[in-house]
Inverse folding.
């Protein structure tokens, strides 16, 4: 008797998307960055004038543009997963590459920001604001790099025919890590660039 | 198609919230708006965080425990940041 392939699992059963391992990593990262964010906020409360003055030297446009890039990257990653779940692999690959372009753009903007600050003589020891700003954003940037590597791996595998409606687990796992990076920046941007 | 609309709507909403956040930053409204500025920024950040958590991270399809862990993280961090901000204004 021929086996009848089951349709993709219905959305009715609650299910964590992606590997449990990446979710444990996500929880750990949220905890770590959460502590960083709150530490920044309390450090700021002890020197509001100093922080406001230093924050005014930040490039708000770069921060805002980077937010747009990460948000758009998340949208592309989500659309990629959706495409792969529908067996539209080549469409999914294009969405993945678009997400990686957003991540690369973020990297370029971030490095340009750092270069500009270095040229102004600003570094980790300039003042408390800049110590925290540089540590926070650099630590976050490292996570963007890891997310890009994950997307790159998925793109290579996808291009070779892996993943589809039968198996989108790896796609969901990489996507979850990317979205975490986006979520962290969504808190970081208003906290560091805007809150005054 | 239904799922696509969710994703597209999420993206547009996130962009709009970012645009407003940016404008708040550009206008530097603290001296005039004070607490309202903080509240507005907080609301925008919560909205953006909820959209990423519920739609992109698909927590709306996930077990309740995980959904509330992530939403709880967002609420707690923003609440503590707000507390620190208010302490700084005191």
């Amino acid at each position: 008797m021929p086996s009848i392939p089951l349709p993709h699992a219905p959305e009715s059963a609650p299910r964590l998307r992606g590997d449990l391992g990446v979710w444990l990593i996500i929880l750990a990262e949220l905890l770590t960055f959460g502590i960083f964010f709150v530490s920044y906020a309390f450090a700021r409360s002890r020197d509001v004038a100093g922080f406001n003055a230093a924050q005014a030297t930040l490039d708000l446009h770069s921060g805002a543009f980077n937010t747009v890039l990460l948000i758009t990257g998340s949208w592309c990653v989500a659309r990629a997963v959706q495409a792969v779940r529908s067996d539209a692999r080549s469409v999914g690959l294009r969405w993945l590459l678009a997400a990686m372009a957003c991540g690369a753009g973020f990297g370029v903007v971030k490095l340009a920001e750092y270069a500009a600050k270095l040229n102004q003589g600003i570094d980790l020891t300039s003042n408390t604001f800049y110590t925290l700003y540089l540590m926070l954003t650099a630590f976050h940037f490292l996570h963007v790099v890891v997310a890009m590597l994950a997307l790159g791996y998925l793109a290579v595998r996808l291009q070779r025919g892996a993943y589809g409606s039968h198996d989108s687990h790896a796609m969901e796992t990489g996507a979850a890590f990317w979205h975490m990076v986006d979520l962290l920046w969504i808190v970081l941007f208003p906290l560091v660039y805007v809150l005054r | 198609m239904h799922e696509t609309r969710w994703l597209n709507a999420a993206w547009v909403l996130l962009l709009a919230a970012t645009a407003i956040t940016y404008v708040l930053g550009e206008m530097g409204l603290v001296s005039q708006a004070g607490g309202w500025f903080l509240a507005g920024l907080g609301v925008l950040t919560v909205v953006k965080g909820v959209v990423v958590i519920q739609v992109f991270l698909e927590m709306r399809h996930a077990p309740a425990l995980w959904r509330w862990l992530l939403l709880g993280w967002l609420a707690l961090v923003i609440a503590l940041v707000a507390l620190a901000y208010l302490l700084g204004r005191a």
Observations:
- Chain A touches chain B through 46 residues (CB under 8 Å).
- The mean pLDDT of chain A is 93.
- The helical segments of chain A are 20-45, 48-55, 60-85, 89-119, 128-159, 169-194.
